[in-house]
Q: What sequence folds into this?
């Protein structure tokens, strides 16, 4: 097991309602999140390890903040203000989740805690780090809300024009019992999106925006995640399941409902609210280690679209020195 820095700490957030979370300044990781079931019993609804030492290697980005650019950039290259930038490539020849040492692997600084329900982390990424231009100063805040939710707020500023796309890579299993419910295929999902961005064989968006109607990617009404996951449909077979960006309904930048999930076993329901234009739904297709198996958790990652720097028709991820990057995402629980 790789050694963990002495600067790495674990912090507990707790709300009077009983909602609790453990978070670490290593990668901004959410290690656990306890929410009630229909009987009032609290269980951990995110996949995570019991000890922070196990996150020294975290190839599946369990619970981590991903950046500077979450998701994929084709061939690890993009052009900005006439300059060509080259990033690390480690996923089918593409750049994924910020590079070899993305935000998921760094030790964030802890801001002064204001209450038991909120903590903020900051990180100053040097100009040229992982190939990105500009010194980027980022703050990520976790808050347990009065409406039984975990809210994640992001803010970033740069010294030079750059690209930014941040997200949380929490894997959820609302059953909170991997022995009784080792997969999330019975979870019922609804995504507030009429369209998605289809991908090629290496999971890079083609640049098209396609209707979900008439495809297995249609979650406009509640349906089990596993109902169509094994359909002989190219968009599913290429990635061994769902790993797609959905175009969320409503106005980009406005806090709105993006998705809802129900676990019929526990009665837990989770709503996802976000200001972002996209939602990456990932069905845990490549989770496979001693602790977690395939489809044992799902991700709902609020984001700008994958490969946006190379797709001018997609919402821009460019951040200039006179601008502030902001986004908010809320995971709200009920029964």
A:
């Amino acid at each position: 097991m790789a050694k963990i820095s002495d600067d790495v700490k674990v912090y507990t957030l707790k709300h009077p309602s009983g909602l609790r979370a453990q978070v670490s300044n290593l990668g901004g990781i959410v290690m656990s999140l306890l929410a009630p079931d229909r009987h009032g019993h609290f269980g951990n609804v995110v996949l995570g390890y019991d000890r922070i030492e196990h996150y020294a290697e975290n190839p599946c980005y369990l619970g981590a903040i991903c950046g500077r650019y979450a998701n994929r950039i084709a061939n690890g290259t993009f052009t900005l203000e006439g300059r060509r930038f080259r990033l690390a490539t480690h996923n089918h020849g593409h750049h994924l989740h910020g590079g070899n040492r993305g935000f998921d692997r760094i030790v964030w600084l802890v801001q002064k805690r204001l209450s038991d329900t909120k903590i903020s982390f900051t990180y100053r990424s040097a100009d040229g780090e992982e190939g990105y231009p500009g010194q980027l100063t980022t703050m990520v805040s976790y808050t347990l809300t009065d409406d039984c939710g975990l809210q994640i707020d992001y803010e970033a500023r740069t010294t030079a024009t750059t690209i930014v796309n941040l997200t949380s890579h929490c894997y959820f299993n609302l059953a909170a019992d991997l022995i009784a419910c080792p997969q999330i295929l019975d979870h019922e999902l609804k995504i507030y999106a009429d369209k998605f961005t289809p991908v090629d064989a290496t999971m890079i968006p083609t640049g098209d925006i396609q209707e979900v109607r008439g495809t297995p990617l249609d979650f406009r009404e509640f349906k089990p995640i596993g109902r169509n996951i094994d359909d002989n449909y190219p968009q599913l077979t290429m990635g061994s399941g769902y790993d797609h960006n959905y175009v969320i309904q409503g106005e980009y930048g406005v806090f709105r409902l993006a998705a809802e999930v129900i676990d019929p076993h526990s009665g837990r329901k989770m709503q996802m609210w976000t200001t972002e234009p996209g939602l990456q739904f990932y069905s845990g297709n490549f989770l496979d280690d001693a602790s977690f198996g395939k489809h044992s958790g799902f991700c709902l990652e609020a984001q700008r679209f994958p490969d946006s720097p190379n797709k001018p028709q997609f919402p821009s991820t460019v951040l200039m020195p006179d601008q502030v990057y902001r986004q908010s995402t809320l995971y709200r629980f009920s029964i």
